Amino acid sequence: MEGSRVKRGALWKLSVSTDREAEDAVVHLLGEVFALPAVTHLNTRSGKTVTSVFSAAKREFTGAARTALREGLARVRGSGLKLGSGRVRVHKVRAEDWTQSWKRHFRPWEPGKALLVKPSWSRRKARRGQATMILDPGLSFGTGQHPTTRFCLKRLVRLRRREVPQSLLDIGTGTGILAIGASLLGYSPVAAFDFDPEAVRVARANARLNRVSRRVAIETADVTLLPARASVRYDVVCANLTHDLLISQRARIVHRVAAGGALILAGILTEQFAAVRSAFESQGWTLRRARTEGEWRSGLFMRAA
Fold first, then answer.
1. Whole-Å CA distances, 290 to 79, 80, 258
2. Same domain? 262 vs 173
3. How far apart are CA 4 and CA 196, in angstroms?
4. Are residues 277 and 161 in the same domain?
5. Both 298 and 152 in a single domain?
6. Which domain holds residue 63?
């Protein structure tokens, strides 16, 4: 996530060493226990991740909260996810050190020729006709480089047809990266929602940072509470959700795709993908493109002819 700026002075950091398979579960757990947005750093060599929350006051990380965290980690491990060491560490970091670390690790990247994603400190210039999305790490952020987000952004670039208008709905928008990227690519209208009010706040901040806040409607909503049939349908629908939500809410999701439209599904662990594919095929959709990266598999679906 992105939204807040890092302030001068010291910060307290609580981190959990884990594995990519359990990354999303640990992010959710930290948010539940501490009511703070979690960030994740991936060691590309080892495949291990460190998921952290930051606070200006150490008292946020009370003994009771850490006990609740350990109990939650035990539940994650018991669910069958590969948790890794699950080591919990609390220590003080200088905000300046934290910022400089991200300047070393967050590099510009291209989901395609039409879009450049970069931090504001990067001097890299967009090519002619290439849109630029700015994502600055703060105390909460996203850099668009998680495999599921990366797949979705690449598909949005490839699906964009400049000569015709295309609309987009981003279900489970998180920090708003897909919705913002779509707007920069020329999709209109663009709508997005998430059940987490904090995610919506950060997504709106990201939209303002990229000067698309008037072109992207970002709301707080729960996919499970949507009307069964939609009054508005979209040319492209992205649903980056857990596999159980994708399966249980498949009817609500597909009823929001316009005739001839595309459906991008992500947030799915590799071993869960077959069940998701089967669920959407039962709704008359066909898998057209898929990609596996690490523990994650994502897919582009089109309505069967």
1. 26, 25, 21
2. yes
3. 17
4. yes
5. yes
6. 10-101
Parallel, antiparallel or unpaired: strands 88-94 and 10-19: antiparallel
115 falls within a domain: no
Q: Let me know whether 90 and 150 are in one domain.
A: no
* Residue position matching structure tokens 């909260």: 65
The pTM of the full predicted model, rounded to 2 decimals, is 0.70
CB 98 within 8 A of CB 114: no
Per-residue pLDDT of the chain (305 residues; tens, 9 = 90+): 233 333 445 678 899 999 888 888 888 888 778 877 677 777 666 667 888 888 777 888 888 899 999 999 999 999 888 898 999 999 887 755 555 555 655 678 888 899 998 887 788 898 998 999 988 655 444 566 678 888 999 999 999 998 899 999 999 998 899 999 999 999 999 999 998 887 888 889 889 989 999 999 999 999 999 999 899 999 999 999 889 999 999 999 999 999 999 999 998 888 999 999 999 999 999 999 999 987 789 999 999 76
Angle at 192 between CA 189 and CA 197, to 5 degrees: 145
Number of folded domains that form the chain: 2
